[in-house]
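To assess whether ligand presence alters the predicted conformation, the chain was also submitted together with fe (ii) ion. Input:
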Amino acid sequence: MDVVIRNANLADGRCGLDIAIADGRIAAIGVALPVRGGREIDAAGDLVTAPFVDAHFHMDATLSYGLPRVNQSGTLLEGIALWGELKPQLSQDALIGRALQYCDWAVARGLLAIRSHVDICDDRLLAVEALLEVKRRVAPYLDLQLVAFPQDGLLRSPGALANLRRAIDMGVEVVGGIPHFERTMAEGAESVRILCEFAAERGLRVDMHCDESDDPLSRHIETLAYHSNRLGLHGRVTGSHLTSMHSMDNYYVSKLLPLIREAGVAAVANPLINITLQGRHDTYPKRRGMTRVPELLAAGIDVAFGHDCVMDPWYSLGSGDMLEVAQMGLHVAQMTGQQAMLDCFAAVTTTPARILGLDGYGVAVGCHADLVLLDAADPVEAIRLRAARRLVLRRGRVVSEAPRAAATLSLPGRPPQVDFRLRRAD
Ligand code: FE2
């Protein structure tokens, strides 16, 4: 074996397991495996998980905070205007440099797969070329999936549809959209129809910024579910943000949730961004803005949490830490029950991996040996501590390493259901 990790806890609750790795894949998982590794790693009862996955990001804008100025109002619309000011000044070298810097941050935090939207409204498609280059360069250590994103509106921005087609032809894999930013509700709905039909024709996935608004009458998710169902796109379509659902009438939502489920559409909430961008027109009480995560989950709909922005025109903070994202999502959605907290961990690992369609993802024999050893015993402790990443492995190779904290918390008397360290291996 190339590597053997000893005495690991897994996110599904199994404890005290060894994980053997050969040729970049997981070769065996079991108690006290009778094998030797070229490198032996003692997990010492800490959590080994498949890597973090970010289902929603903007790598063309990341780390541009302050260029050419900061967002004074803190609103989505000023952010879009600010990005419009920055776009003509972008250079390919700067885009690539910032994106590579962010990918380094991501890897150090065990974030090994990112779906990034890339703005295609600039006729030069500078950002598309830059991020395709970044995708090629980071491929040995990070999966970067790109979405052709008409930031200024598919119908509102001249040439956007032609540019989107060009971007797809150049190698961008997912069809994006922004129906709530079109000029009218009708044009928003029309953009959803055009984009879904294009995706169906080309056999592509769809991920739209959808209803990123506090307007309860922004109902493009209904149209997205309708066309996904009509065109048989089940399992390939994602509605990102869906913040208008926060403000919708409860009766309408009771009809909407089964429609989303029926269409096999997944949802991505972006807790850090939704809690800061939404509700800006409110006085008090001030809406939280994030979509209805527990209700979507209860309806059987996949929900992932995305980071969305790091140090860009929309958000001045962030570090590529998906545990920070999970922690914010947990708080904003009040998901404090045991299962709910585990669901928040899944929202930054297994669920987005399914949404991206990642191949060979997971902690199971035959999966890629892409693993993160956290300085925490279980997913809840990982979120609570925003635990350090002791080790990050990509295809069985250690790509990032950090020391274990000197002291670990031990509270005697905690029952096994809340303390993984008290459990025994299966
Ligand atoms: Fe976004």
